[in-house]
Design brief:
128 residues; mainly beta; seven-stranded mixed β-sheet; 3% helix; globular
């Protein structure tokens, strides 16, 4: 079993920054893929960024490229999402997720159904 606990959300003005953390406990292997998703009120959950735990290869959706950075700390088994230049449209609940069989992560990282484990979510609100 893998447990994921997010933290770091909050209220920030447009243009500001936040860093989300996802503490990972339980079994993890280099084949795992870790993703950050978000869900705005009334909208579907969407992928934001992902990282392959072993290789460190990262993936981003176009809307956050150049503003968000995903990273992982192997020693602390924590995944981070550094969010800069935040916009009101970034407002959402952000979720951390783990894919235990990410062998084809390049093609699956944006799919909600590809992930086995989810955190409880953390609210990010960006005011204009």
């Amino acid at each position: 079993q893998v447990q994921l606990v997010e933290s770091g959300g909050g209220l920030v003005q447009a243009g500001g920054s936040l860093r989300l953390s996802c503490a990972v406990s339980g079994r993890t292997f280099s084949t795992y893929g870790m993703g950050w998703f978000r869900q705005a009120l009334g909208k579907e959950r969407e992928a934001v960024a992902a990282i392959k735990w072993g290789s460190g290869r990262t993936y981003y959706v176009d809307s956050v490229k150049g503003r968000f950075t995903i990273s992982r700390d192997n020693a602390k088994t924590t995944v981070y999402l550094q969010m800069n230049s935040l916009k009101p449209e970034d407002t959402a609940v952000y979720y951390c997720a783990a894919d235990s069989n990410a062998l084809n992560f390049l093609t699956t990282w944006q799919r909600v159904a590809a992930y086995d484990y989810w955190g409880q979510g953390t609210q990010v609100t960006v005011s204009s």
